Amino acid sequence: GSINLAGAKTGVMDKDRIGFDYQMVRPGVFRVQPTAQLAKGEYGFIYSLAGGGAGGAVTARIFDFAVD
Asked: What are phi and psi of 41, to 5 degrees?
């Protein structure tokens, strides 16, 4: 997200998004394959949930990982 004098935005900026394909292995478990090679670094998935919360903070889960 970002914040400045004009207001605030939540979510992932377009320049930071990476395409991926996924397959459900079983309910709640997914196999994910990026559509492009990932460089070394830290990455994460934002899983949005239905419902309300202050600024979206309560309605999302972040799953992070690293590529060595």
From this structure: 155, -170
